Amino acid sequence: MSRIAQTFDRLRRQGRTALIPYITAGDPHPDCTVAAMHALVAAGADLIELGVPFSDPMADGPVIQKATERALAHGTSLAQVLGMVAAFRRQDPHTPVVLMGYANPIEAMGYVPFALQARAAGVDGVLTVDLPPEEALDGYLEALKTEGLDRIFLVAPTTPVSRLQAVADQGAGFVYYVSLKGVTGADALDVADVAEHVAALKQHINRPIGIGFGIRDGERAYEMAKLADAVIVGSALVKEMEGLQGAPCQQVVERVATALAPFRAGVDRADEEVKG
């Protein structure tokens, strides 16, 4: 059983919803990323999504696009991101880490070399935004599966049933449900609509469901925690990194931990009311 599966199994038995924060590796500076990851765990993260910087982040809104630009300006590469995960693992052997990014850097490294190095570094899962299951061919999924890396896919309100079946067949770990149409950081979150789609999704996929996109504060985290197995928070945290260029890593650590606190509180409140 993978670290991701073990974590969701433990949380299910405890009646808890996972909180999954996202940060962009290398932002505001590569030297601060590992410390920020540890700070997130200390502040209540159950899993961590680590963004791999890419020059054309098509699914990301302005906040994460700017973070990617800042990380790339520091020369943050996929190889360096794997090094950050390895450094994180030296102190934390338990918290699952999911890499979230785009196909180009992985293709440049090579599917098999990437999978081998990711597993060696301590990566648990990979979400490649621009490789849906029916297009992730030519050995990519096979390489991840061989190395025991969970294949995580995005599912949107507009995802057809045929793709849901492919996600069910080829994915592992959890499903990332995009709560609204648009890019990360969007604002038009309709709780009733999300509830309806998540209920329908559960009829096709027997795997934990995490809800992301549009979760901007603790109240929205509270609402989403009542519907799913995990709440994913990205842009609201990444926004806190703006303006910290050149700041001491301790300031970055304190900022990200403080920013995560209301989301943890919102998720915990939902668990007490619904699952407790």
Notes on the structure:
This protein is an alpha/beta fold. It has a single domain (3-267), classed as Alpha-Beta Barrel (TIM Barrel). Helix content is 49%, strand content 13%. A 9-stranded parallel beta sheet has the order 5-4-3-2-1-9-8-7-6. Strand 7 (175-178), helix 9 and strand 8 (209-212) form a beta-alpha-beta unit. Helix 2 packs parallel to helix 12 (249-275), helix 5 (103-109) crosses helix 6 and helix 10 crosses helix 12 (249-275). The longest helix has 27 residues, at 249-275. The protein is globular. The two termini are 26 Å apart. Residues 182-186 have low confidence and may be disordered.
Structural descriptors:
276 residues; alpha/beta; nine-stranded parallel sheet; 12 helices; 9 strands
SSE order and pairing:
Elements: H1 3-14, E1 18-24, H2 30-42, E2 48-51, H3 62-73, H4 78-89, E3 97-101, H5 103-109, H6 111-121, E4 125-128, H7 140-146, E5 150-152, E6 154-155, H8 161-170, E7 175-178, H9 191-202, E8 209-212, H10 218-225, E9 230-233, H11 235-238, H12 249-275
Helix pairs in contact: 2-4, 2-12, 4-6, 5-6, 6-7, 10-12
